[in-house]
Design goal:
With 167 residues, this protein is α+β, with helices and mostly antiparallel strands. It contains 4 helices and 7 strands, in the order βααβββαβαββ.
């Protein structure tokens, strides 16, 4: 079985389904940790609709969808920040049943290539303390913890990586 990664519109059926799965998982994890309950379904629907991913569209952004043996399995988003030499990595997600098969590293590598194509020389990202798998992935792929680069109320860890020109 093989992985493929390609750009996809944020409003495609597969991208929308993966966004729903991602947002549900990270919301449920946060609410279970902090409030002992899952996310409220009505709140999930509002937030999913409100954050459809308009910032992940060309010319300053891109959504990548990974497929495993042809089945939509995960995403990674890239968008330029206010500094055109810096891109943000976001929405890195794989369906739970396909984790541990190398897809996350492929998604991040494809996102780094996309960021270089957009003109970025550096990639930044933020994540939470409870997303230990994500933090381990980023560290393994050469991302280093940095000072905060945003004021997102859910961000607890910030990472950066200089993008070495490809070729």
């Amino acid at each position: 079985m093989a992985w493929t990664v390609a750009p996809e519109p944020v409003d495609s059926a597969d991208a929308a389904a993966l966004w729903r799965a991602y947002y549900t998982e990270v919301s449920d994890r946060w609410y279970l940790l902090h409030q002992g309950r899952r996310a409220d379904p009505a709140e999930l629907e509002r937030e999913i609709a409100a954050n459809a991913g308009d910032h992940l569209t060309p010319p300053a952004g891109l959504l990548l969808v990974a497929r495993y043996d042809g089945t939509a399995a995960g995403t990674a988003g890239v968008r330029l920040t206010g500094d055109p030499s810096t891109a943000e990595l976001t929405r890195v997600f794989l369906l739970p049943e396909l984790r541990g098969k190398g897809g996350a590293a492929l998604l991040v590598a494809a996102a780094e290539d996309a960021a270089r194509t957009l003109g970025a020389e550096r990639m930044i990202l933020d994540t939470r303390s409870d997303l230990v798998e994500a933090r381990a992935l980023y560290a393994r792929l050469g991302y280093e913890e940095t000072a905060a680069h945003n004021s997102d109320p859910y961000a607890e860890h910030w990472f950066g990586k200089r993008l070495i020109p490809s070729g």
